[in-house]
Design goal:
Layout lengths: L3 H13 L23 H11 L4 H13 L3 H14 L4 H14 L7 H13 L4 H13 L3 H13 L8 H15 L4 H6 L2 H8 L14 H8 L3 H21 L4 H13 L3 H14 L4 H11 L5
InterPro entries: C-type_cytochrome_biogenesis, TPR-like_helical_dom_sf, TPR_rpt
GO biological process, one term: cytochrome complex assembly
Keywords: Cytochrome c-type biogenesis, TPR repeat
Length: about 300
């Protein structure tokens, strides 16, 4: 499995940092924590090209390319990923952001807007799509409307989310430049309000602890066989935690993804079956996620 083990380890860490709601994702993907290892971007590129039908491989490559400011490559990678997983709002909004950053003159090119709108059509709570469509409103001159949208996003943002401080700063700066009072409205958005919107509010939906950045970097220095053992150990640990916390749907999705990356489709199918058995009300979502990951039917 080689470098795929590192991608898997990082992916487990990423999913473990998320709560129940998909909108609690950062505006940029944390996958590139391995991108500062020399040659890792090239390895992710090779990994994606070797698995052209694997959306997750293109996702990892796109996120790493974005982190290294290789925006043209990020655009290409996310275009591949969205073509393979058309119902993934996070991939569409990531594509939009990459297109914005890759545009030399237009601060909000039409192709980026199209990607953000596709993300929002799939998931109206996607934070990156909401943020950038508010930017579009601001650029069009509707500063108050943009601020309203950003405040609504902030209200839905879990306290301490990676984008929270930048979002607050944007609201303050745009308000100051355009004479829009925002201080009282910002003050009204309490920590309790933030948690009430999209945060984790129950044990069943609590995030599963994942590896630290230091642990991930340490894993990148291991020989391939040890990387594989570490990845398999983390998958086994995730599986064990899901047995104790079976209502964590994101955890089941991560387990399906992990089994597929380990080339264990039977294990992924078993995870899907267990997830549905534990969460029958979420069957449609689980089936959709399984389909996007390429889990065999049956």
């Amino acid at each position: 499995m080689g470098f795929a083990a590192i991608v898997l380890i990082v992916s487990i860490g990423y999913a473990s940092l998320r709560g129940r709601n998909d909108a609690a994702r950062p505006l940029t993907d944390p996958v590139p924590m391995v991108a500062d290892k020399p040659g890792s971007l090239a390895m992710l590129r090779d990994q994606a090209r070797a698995s052209p039908d694997n959306a997750e491989a293109w996702h990892a490559f796109g996120a790493a390319a974005f982190e290294q400011q290789q925006f043209a490559e990020a655009v290409t990678a996310y275009e591949h990923a969205t073509a393979l997983a058309r119902e993934r709002a996070d991939l569409w909004s990531a594509l939009g952001e990459a297109r914005v950053m890759n545009s030399p003159t237009d601060p909000m090119p039409a192709v980026a807007v199209s990607a953000f709108e596709k993300a929002m059509a799939i998931d109206a709570k996607d934070p990156r799509g909401r943020y950038f469509l508010a930017v579009k409103r601001d650029l069009s001159g509707d500063h108050k409307g943009a601020i309203d949208d950003w405040l609504a996003l902030l209200r839905d943002t879990p306290a301490g989310a990676p984008w929270e401080s930048d979002l607050r700063r944007t609201i303050v700066q745009v308000g100051k430049i355009n004479g829009v009072d925002v201080e009282s409205r910002l003050a009204a958005i309490s920590s309790a309000d933030a948690h009430a919107g999209l945060g984790v509010t129950s044990t069943a939906n609590a995030p599963i602890p994942g590896p630290s950045a230091a642990e991930i970097r340490a894993a990148a220095a291991l020989p391939p066989s040890e990387q594989n053992n570490m990845a398999r150990g983390m998958v086994a640990s995730l599986e064990g935690k899901l047995k104790a916390n079976p209502a964590n749907i994101d955890g089941w999705v991560m387990l399906m993804r992990s089994r597929m990356m380990l080339n264990e489709p039977a294990g992924a199918m078993a995870a899907r079956k267990a997830a549905i058995a534990a969460n029958p009300g979420a069957k449609a979502r689980i089936e959709s996620e399984a389909g996007a990951l390429g889990v065999p039917a049956g």
